[in-house]
Design goal:
- Strands 4-5-3-6-7 form a five-stranded parallel beta sheet, with helices on both faces.
- Among the domains are: 237 residues, 3-Layer(aba) Sandwich (Rossmann fold), CATH 3.40.50; 34 residues.
- A hairpin with a 2-residue loop joins strand 1 and strand 2.
- The chain starts with 16 loop residues before the first helix and ends with a helix.
- It has 17 helices and seven strands.
- The protein is 51% helix and 6% strand.
């Protein structure tokens, strides 16, 4: 277990020089062992009384330790990095990204970060995982952060950048308003993916349709999961809607949850990303993560004492110890994207669905369901407040915001009616650029996967350099 600093015992009143010399040698050996442990294992230290010394995790993961491995799962955004950084601080051992398994092969890391089954994720860890915790972020904040992460990894911020990044696929390119409309359509898809993702983990790998949330069979489900999921609107297999309708019945489950995760996919804890980051609720939320490791084979041997859990959280969140997370991005608190009432209402509908489902009698005795509903109720209140702000004009919408088809069309028509009636009539008869945007999306996904793999390669090189310096 985590080592505490040695406490001074009672001062001896008598004793021979030999005894004193022996005691001195023992103390020196103990201090040397502590020093070597800190230098090579880099474990955070419990100083007692709620104080601690935070140290960076050890990336030199031994293969001979038999411990319970925890999946840190969540919809794509920046919050999972904060969660696994906290787990690293609690134990002194580094976590690993799902794409590192895809790139470098298997390892014995005790924590694995994943976006699976979202198409931005990948089950690359085979049978290495034993249990999971689910990180839930406000649906609106999730899309804001995912949007920003996508841009960090090379997706175009604007239509002009899309054309600059080798996306000039045709001579007859669609105008900018088509690009913005295409981008908006992705938000509708992600709203459905958000609830689908939560259902998957809460129900232990259940297979549901992304859009209707009806039960489906394995073949239909993998049409959704596949990164190349564009065919869902193209009438594949005789019509996507028809396939979903025929697949209903008894629930089917992802076989990997049953066969490759020893404890199953149902999370042992549901963590609120917003509460974890808050100075008032953070320590209590962080304690739920520590509790998941208590008494667990192997990993609990390295878990710092409970009295220091709050200190480890404070070092990470308040004092910003460790590697950078999305909280460290310049201008993070000021960056924002506005969503129209049209989109906010769609988000609310999905949140209502989840609240009703996991607040029902079927779930009301399960702590993870209670925690999820409590988290989602907070999200619901925030969305309702934002709708009021949009309605009252406190949030001014522009054409570059996320508007949705109805709001964007209304704003465009209002603008054009003031300038040219003929242009307004032309707007109603837009050309179909679906093929262009399908190819654009495929190229974006290919680039994103490449960027992910390149990122884990760079991270591994940095880890190798650190280990070489220590060695």
């Amino acid at each position: 277990s985590m080592m505490t600093q040695p406490k001074e015992g009672p001062r001896p009143t008598s004793g021979s020089k030999a005894i004193k010399l022996f005691a001195g040698v023992v103390l020196a050996v103990a201090l040397l062992a502590l020093s070597e442990s800190i230098d090579t294992r880099q474990l955070s230290i419990n100083l007692g009384g709620g104080a601690c010394q935070w140290t960076a995790p050890d990336h030199d993961i031994p293969n001979d330790i038999d411990w319970i491995t925890t999946l840190v799962v969540g919809f794509p955004s920046g919050d999972k990095r904060l969660a696994f950084k906290h787990l690293e601080g609690l134990t002194g051992w580094a976590a690993r990204d799902e794409w590192a398994y895809k790139t470098f092969g298997m390892s014995n890391h005790p924590f694995i970060k994943t976006n699976y089954p979202h198409y931005d994720g990948d089950w690359g860890w085979e049978d290495a995982a034993d249990q999971s915790i689910l990180i839930v972020r406000n649906i609106r904040n999730t899309f804001t952060e995912f949007h920003h992460v996508m841009w960090d990894l090379g997706a175009p911020k604007t239509y002009a950048e899309a054309l600059e990044h080798e996306y000039d696929l045709y001579d007859n390119l669609p105008p900018q308003e088509h690009f913005l409309s295409w981008r908006d359509e992705h938000v509708y898809d992600e709203i459905s993916f958000y609830g689908w993702f939560i259902d998957y983990w809460m129900e232990g790998g259940i297979l549901r349709d992304v859009y209707s949330h009806d039960l489906v069979d394995g073949d239909t489900w993998y049409m959704n999961y596949s990164p190349d999921h564009f065919h869902e609107l193209e009438g594949a297999y005789g019509g996507y809607d028809e396939v979903v309708a025929q697949a209903g019945g008894l629930p089917a489950y992802d076989e990997r949850c049953a066969n490759l995760v020893s404890g199953g996919c149902v999370p042992l804890a549901v963590i609120s990303a917003e509460r974890f980051e808050s100075p008032t609720t953070g320590p209590a939320e962080a304690a739920k993560m520590g509790a998941v490791l208590e008494g667990k084979r192997g990993i609990s041997d390295y878990l710092i004492e409970k009295e220091a859990w709050g200190c480890v959280w404070e070092e990470l969140i308040i004092n910003r110890k460790g590697e950078k997370t999305f909280l460290d991005r310049e201008g993070h608190s000021r960056r924002n994207y506005n969503f129209s009432e049209e989109f906010l209402n769609e988000m609310l509908r999905e949140i209502y669905r989840l609240i009703i489902k996991y607040g029902s009698k079927t779930w009301q005795q399960q702590q993870i369901a209670k925690d999820l509903v409590s988290i989602l109720n907070n999200h619901k209140a925030a969305l309702e407040q934002e709708i009021v702000e949009v309605q009252n004009g406190l949030r001014k919408l522009t054409e570059n915001d996320f508007l949705g088809p109805k709001t964007r069309r209304r704003m465009e028509m209002e603008k054009l009616q003031l300038s040219n009636a003929q242009e307004a009539r032309d707007l109603k008869q837009r050309a179909d650029y679906k093929e262009f945007f399908d190819v654009l999306e495929k190229k974006m996904m290919e680039k994103r996967i490449f960027q992910k793999k390149r990122a884990v390669v760079r991270e591994q090189r940095e880890i190798d350099r650190k280990l070489k310096r220590l060695g």
